[in-house]
Design a protein that fits this description.
The protein has about 260 residues and is α+β, with helices and mostly antiparallel strands. About 25% of the residues lie in helices and about 25% in strands. It binds 2-amino-4-trifluoromethylsulfanyl-butyric acid and cobalt (II) ion (2 copies).
Length: about 260
């Protein structure tokens, strides 16, 4: 906080784009293997192996003592779920997989939601939550252009959530963040910010937008057992989607868009 926001050169952006594409490709691959009966440690070993095979390093591993290579957050887990062999994915579960890779001296950070057993297996409320959260991410992304302020992103997310007419909670304790040579750098991207607040966006800035939306209270609780896993305070479902974006001369470039299309 108070730190300067780094502006990436065209050369740095090219290097970072390659990292972001590895992240997106691994998320595509997770979509192909995820299935009911799998445990979340299997997702971890898959992401770890594929990251290395793509010539990258998993950024989460040993980051501030985090013990695994990916965050896997099912159902009421808001974020930072630690993969474990005893956490089984069941039909009807919704789960966030958050992949960050490091390659070429740069990080690329993105997360998606998956329907375990397919959309058919999930409740209408769960499906709606996942779709609304993805729309919230894109409402934020649409604010990204030179001259706008970082707070415009959170403002747009809140306005969008209001239009759903449902009692969703936008998580406040965890935010988007600048990234590049560092995993987390300035600016902080607050998903509940006021429009017109925060730093002015300038071409060459790179940061994540990663709203977490709860099907009940916005309040969260941090696990006293592992010190990482964040759950909804009321046990209701939570969803999250994340992209790494670049401010361009004219608008936005979603760097973690999959080679297979927009997710
Ligand atoms: N990828 C997460 C984010 O979006 C951060 C995970 S930190 C870790 O910022 F230590 F849990 F990996
Ligand atoms: Co992430
Ligand atoms: Co992030």
């Amino acid at each position: 906080m108070g730190e300067k926001i780094t502006i990436k050169t065209a050369e740095e952006i090219a290097l970072m784009r390659e990292t972001c594409q590895v992240t997106a490709t691994i998320l595509d691959e997770v979509g192909e293997i995820i299935r009911p009966g799998m445990n979340t440690e299997e997702i971890n070993s898959f992401v770890h192996r594929r990251t290395l095979e793509h010539g990258a390093i998993p950024s989460p591993l040993n980051y501030k003592g985090y013990p695994k290579s990916v965050c896997v957050s099912p159902n009421d887990v808001v974020c930072h779920g630690i993969p474990a062999p005893y956490i089984l994915l069941m039909p009807g579960d919704i789960v966030n997989v958050d992949v960050t890779c490091y390659k070429n001296g740069f990080h690329g950070d993105s997360s998606r939601m998956y329907f375990v057993g397919g959309e058919e297996a999930c409740s209408p409320e769960a499906i709606q939550l996942v779709k609304v959260t993805r729309e919230a991410l894109f409402a934020g992304i649409r604010q990204v252009k030179p001259g706008n302020r970082i707070g415009d992103i959170g403002g747009a997310i809140q306005d969008y959530i209001k239009t759903t007419g449902r009692n969703y909670g936008i998580v406040r304790e965890y935010t988007g963040h600048g990234l590049g040579r560092e995993f987390h750098e300035a600016p902080q991207v607050i998903h509940t910010a006021r429009r017109g607040s925060g730093d002015i966006m300038r071409p060459g800035m790179t940061f994540t937008i990663e709203p977490m939306i709860n099907l009940g209270t916005a309040r969260t609780s941090l696990s006293k057992v592992d010190g990482w896993t964040v759950r909804t305070a009321d046990g209701a479902l939570s969803a999250q989607w994340e992209h790494t974006v670049l401010v361009t001369e004219t608008g936005v470039d979603i760097m973690t868009t999959s080679p297979k299309g927009v997710f």
